[in-house]
Amino acid sequence: MTHQGYADDSMWARGQTWGIYGFAMAYRETGNKDFLNTSIKLSDRLFRAFAQRWHSLLGF
User: Fold this and answer.
1) Are 18 and 3 in contact, with CB atoms under 8 Å apart?
2) What is the DSSP letter of 8?
3) Residues 18-45: b if buried by 16+ CB within 10 A, e if exposed
4) pTM of the model
5) Contacts 24+ apart (CB under 8 A), 46-52
6) Mean pLDDT for the chain?
7) Residue 6 contacts by C-beta under 8 Å, 6 or more apart in sequence?
8) What is the C-alpha to C-alpha distance for residues 37 and 24, in angstroms, rounded to an integer?
9) Using CA atoms, how far apart are residues 38 and 35, in angstroms rounded to an integer?
10) For residues 60 and 57, what is the distance between their CA atoms, to the nearest angstrom?
11) Radius of gyration of the chain (CA)
12) Tens digits of per-residue pLDDT, 10-29?
C-alpha cells in the first residue's frame, strides 16, 4: 500500500537523492563498500527513471 508517492513502484526524487547522498557519506566515513554499492545502485535507478520519463515526453 502506498502512503507517499504516486504508486508502490514509483519513487520520491528527494528521498531517493537523500539515500544516494547518505550511503555515499556512510562509505566515506567507514570505507564499507556495501554503502558505496548501494549509493551507486540508487543513482542508477534514479537516472534510468528520469531518462525514461524525459524520453517519453520528448517522443524518443
Assistant:
1) no
2) T
3) ebbeebbebbeeeeeeebbebbeebbee
4) 0.68
5) 46/11, 46/13, 46/16, 46/17, 46/20, 49/11, 50/13
6) 83
7) none
8) 9
9) 5
10) 8
11) 14
12) 667 778 889 999 999 999 99
Task: Find cell 528520469 and name the residue.
Answer: 50
* Structure-model confidence comparison of residues 25 and 50, the more confident one: 25
Q: How far apart are CA 42 and CA 54, in angstroms?
A: 18
Joined together, the cell numbers standing for residue 25 give 557519506
Q: How many residues does the chain have?
A: 60
* Measured distance CA(24)–CA(48) in Å, rounded: 19
CA proximity to 48, closest of 16, 26, 24 = 16
Contacts of 49 (CB under 8 A, 6+ apart): 11
